[in-house]
Amino acid sequence: MLIGLDPILSPDLLSHLRAMGHGDEIVIADGSFPAATVARRLVRVDGVGLRRVLRAVLALLPLDESEPDPVIGMQVIGDPGKWMPMHEEIAEGVARVAAGLKPLLIDRHDFYRRSTQAFAVVATGETGFYGNVILRKGTIENPPVAD
Fold first, then answer.
1. CA-CA to 103 of 20 to 30 Å: which in 10, 66, 111, 131?
2. Confidence tier at 77 by pLDDT (50, 70, 90)
3. Global pTM?
4. Which UniProt key words apply to this protein (predicted)?
5. CATH architecture of 60-139
6. Residue 125 and residue 47 in contact, taking contact as beta carbons nearer than 8 Å
7. How far is CA 145 from CA 31, 73, 97, 142, in A?
8. Are 92 and 5 in contact (CB under 8 A)?
């Protein structure tokens, strides 16, 4: 255990978050997502829902707000303009770290294709429909330096 870190942030997940560079993307996926099929690097967080994983990751990962759409969710099949409860969860989680930033929702197949290019996929135990999000890593202007 470490002070101030959610214990669901495993050494594997922390390593991937640290290794990501500016512009790299990470997918946080629900339990129905084909994570093992699309992932270059797969991290499993079974039994934990989207809200907690998103909160833990966003406590460490700066979002890339230098370009549009650093947060991407999946559209509802057959009703692309509809927002599901999981879309609201994503929006609320993101708003905690980036006020006014809303996720862009894209077609399911486009989401899957984009996920194959992601740095890593985090497979959660989320059971809610459309509990999938892609986050693009940004930079930190003046990172803290230990004396």
1. 10
2. very high
3. 0.95
4. Isomerase
5. 3-Layer(aba) Sandwich (3.40)
6. yes
7. 38, 34, 22, 9
8. no
Q: Are 35 and 121 in contact (CB under 8 A)?
A: yes
3-class SS letters over the chain: CCCCCCCCCCHHHHHHHHHCCCCCEEEEECCCCCHHHHCCCEEEECCCCHHHHHHHHHCCCCECCCCCCCEEEECCCCCCCCCCHHHHHHHHHHHCCCCCCCCEEECHHHHHHHHHCCCEEEEECCCCCCCCEEEEECCCCCCCCCC
For tokens 């929702």, the residue is 105
Rounded Cα gap, residues 109 and 111, in angstroms: 5
* pLDDT greater than 90 at residue 18: yes
Please give the angle made by the CA atoms of 129, 101 and 32, to the nearest 5 degrees: 15
The residue type at 144: P
121 near 39, Cβ under 8 Å? yes
The closest alpha carbon to 34, from 131, 112, 114, belongs to: 112
Rounded average pLDDT over 29-43: 98
